[in-house]
């Protein structure tokens, strides 16, 4: 009978483990590397956009349309990636999409026009969206098996990777041609994918320990493969709720990335260098918030973390958008980063716990929708009213995420 059980487990592509199993530590390390690689490659591409604009000769408007290819490609494949994860497993899909992402980052310098760049970025964006769904799905399974809310630590790795990628890009931008720089990132990406991918491919997705399956584990590790398979319609509806929470968070991230520096220059009167520091303060605060996210989740639980984060971000963004003092804007950016830091990871993780890779894909699609919606919405509102007034919508949506989290607390517990 034990042998028969092992055969059945192997056929299902699963591995029964305990939280202390060394294989879980190896999996966590490998997944952390993939999250960091994702941020590293994406930031490396972003800092070379000016060089790509110069090579293509595109106008600002044409470049903006071409850049939509990244988001469009990402959103287009997310639901498909969820189905692929259910069919083949999240680990193989993570490795394949990481390899495509590494290759795709080398393609933009070879585009000689804005339309060609847009087509190239569709491929890059599809790989970017795919790896985000796949590795988040793998992380949800691992979090469940570990019975610890470590999802924010993976997103912290993404943030750290992004900071490293942007820093390296800034150092080499004036010394290395964009083609050589992005080809170098391709080489790094493929090497890391091979090394970390061997760990993922060598370890099937872990099954939740029996304590979690039976519902007797801690609330931070709730959910299991069997419960996901029987997820009721109301559970799928709750995935939409968490998707909306993710949208509220990513709206703020996108808005600050595109409009934070301009607010400092145009409305506060800061110099270009000081304005650039503003977003760095926001990004650093978000990284710190995610590094401390596991401890916060263990202490407060998921709902309180979401409510506290949304409220903090709302207060911070009101301070940053409505006060004329430079120091107050920096403090506001820092509070906003700390508040938003764990909203997206928790929302995506909860969606995955409810319905597996499909939940991750659905919530991620909502999240990227917020990142798409934020910058143009801020621009339209800034033209109609003013940029500070437009930026208050970040506070409104952050407060909305806190409200939604609090109102649906009972629903979450029942599901």
Automatic annotation (TrEMBL):
<dbReference type="InterPro" id="IPR020846">
    <property type="entry name" value="MFS_dom"/>
</dbReference>
<feature type="transmembrane region" description="Helical">
    <location>
        <begin position="387"/>
        <end position="407"/>
    </location>
</feature>
<keyword id="KW-0812">Transmembrane</keyword>
<feature type="transmembrane region" description="Helical">
    <location>
        <begin position="182"/>
        <end position="201"/>
    </location>
</feature>
<dbReference type="InterPro" id="IPR036259">
    <property type="entry name" value="MFS_trans_sf"/>
</dbReference>
<dbReference type="GO" id="GO:0022857">
    <property type="term" value="F:transmembrane transporter activity"/>
</dbReference>
<keyword id="KW-1133">Transmembrane helix</keyword>
<feature type="transmembrane region" description="Helical">
    <location>
        <begin position="268"/>
        <end position="291"/>
    </location>
</feature>
<dbReference type="InterPro" id="IPR011701">
    <property type="entry name" value="MFS"/>
</dbReference>
<feature type="transmembrane region" description="Helical">
    <location>
        <begin position="29"/>
        <end position="47"/>
    </location>
</feature>
<feature type="transmembrane region" description="Helical">
    <location>
        <begin position="92"/>
        <end position="110"/>
    </location>
</feature>
<dbReference type="Pfam" id="PF07690">
    <property type="entry name" value="MFS_1"/>
</dbReference>
<feature type="transmembrane region" description="Helical">
    <location>
        <begin position="237"/>
        <end position="256"/>
    </location>
</feature>
<feature type="transmembrane region" description="Helical">
    <location>
        <begin position="326"/>
        <end position="348"/>
    </location>
</feature>
<feature type="transmembrane region" description="Helical">
    <location>
        <begin position="303"/>
        <end position="320"/>
    </location>
</feature>
<dbReference type="InterPro" id="IPR051788">
    <property type="entry name" value="MFS_Transporter"/>
</dbReference>
<feature type="transmembrane region" description="Helical">
    <location>
        <begin position="360"/>
        <end position="381"/>
    </location>
</feature>
<protein>
    <submittedName>
        <fullName>MFS transporter</fullName>
    </submittedName>
</protein>
<feature type="transmembrane region" description="Helical">
    <location>
        <begin position="156"/>
        <end position="176"/>
    </location>
</feature>
<feature type="region of interest" description="Disordered">
    <location>
        <begin position="208"/>
        <end position="229"/>
    </location>
</feature>
<feature type="transmembrane region" description="Helical">
    <location>
        <begin position="59"/>
        <end position="80"/>
    </location>
</feature>
<feature type="domain" description="Major facilitator superfamily (MFS) profile">
    <location>
        <begin position="24"/>
        <end position="413"/>
    </location>
</feature>
<dbReference type="GO" id="GO:0005886">
    <property type="term" value="C:plasma membrane"/>
</dbReference>
<feature type="compositionally biased region" description="Low complexity">
    <location>
        <begin position="211"/>
        <end position="226"/>
    </location>
</feature>
<feature type="transmembrane region" description="Helical">
    <location>
        <begin position="116"/>
        <end position="135"/>
    </location>
</feature>
<keyword id="KW-0472">Membrane</keyword>
